[in-house]
Amino acid sequence: MSRKLRWGIIGCAGIAVRSVIPGIQQSETGEVAAIASRGLAKAQETAETLGIPKAYGSYEELLADGDIDAIYIPLPNHLHMEWTIKAIEAGKHVLCEKPIALNAAEAQRMADASRSAGVHLAEAFMYRYHPAYARVKEIIDSGEIGDIRGIHGTFTFNNAADSGNVRYKREWGGGSIYDVGCYPISAARLLLGEEPVAASVHALLSPEHDNVDMMAAGILEFSNGVALSFDCGMWAAFRNTLEVLGTQGRIELPSAFLGSNFFVHTGEGTRVEEQPTLNQYSLQADDFARVVWGEKQARFAPEDAVANMKVIDACLESAYTRSRVTL
């Protein structure tokens, strides 16, 4: 298609360089027109490597560029609100990396700013745009696995040796609940179509990593006795799974957030639900652009990000106080 949404990237974070920028470049609707860093040399190096036309040595210069339609923000979590609101005030649409903010109050300020300015704000949970999740929801709604009795999700990896990583700075929004626990939390809310009423989380708080939660295991209580049990970590072997357990069967996603085939187990046996190999970051960019252009309604309004942050707030409070927290 000839029409393109012109993206500017604030920061040269790994997620941007490895995944989001290539995803936008491979999308049907987007082009990456500019990138900014705190230093011009870093921006120029990244721009040259990825074939981005313009590079800026400050975020402010990028926001002042009238040729940019939308901004992607992969900055450390504590900078999300500041630069999202500055981008919104510059008249830009914003895709902000997950978690959208440090807490629900910040997320609400961001949502309010986007509404007031009439721009699109989205949280970058790329997995939600893969058709696998629409298919999982379809199977649940069909009744094939019976009534839902529970969901279990995991997302763990081991990066603990990188002690200077921003994930290990507590004031910057470090920790595994912020970084990867947010995935099973958002997935349970998505599949159940409701919000939890309480959270109980136990965490490994590591003094050598600024006392962030390097591993956490928790339960979110939903209605009718249904719960999400989850664990997340940055000091454990890699896995990212989701299981939806019903009275008559279960759905097993062995690579729940990175896109893959999944399995349906019932009394009739096990079948593979084959999924197309798609770039989830491209799907996210295309959905974003079509909302900006008024071709469709946003599937996930900013209020969804606020709701997800309320759950994360409760999980963190529970982990640090060792108590059950009601929402």
Automatic annotation (TrEMBL):
The record ties this protein, via Pfam families, to: GFO_IDH_MocA (PF01408), GFO_IDH_MocA_C3 (PF22725)
Q: Which GO MF term does the entry hold, naming one? A: nucleotide binding
Q: Which residues form the GFO/IDH/MocA-like oxidoreductase domain?
A: 133-252
* Entry superkingdom: Bacteria
Endoplasmic reticulum is among the record's keywords: no
Which residue intervals define the domain Gfo/Idh/MocA-like oxidoreductase N-terminal in the entry? 5-122
Matching entries from InterPro entries are given as: Gfo/Idh/MocA-like_OxRdtase_N (IPR000683), Gfo/Idh/MocA_domain (IPR050984), GFO_IDH_MocA-like_dom (IPR055170), NAD(P)-bd_dom_sf (IPR036291)
Keyword line: Oxidoreductase
Keyword Flavoprotein listed? The answer is no
What family is reported? Belongs to the Gfo/Idh/MocA family.
Name of the protein: Putative dehydrogenase
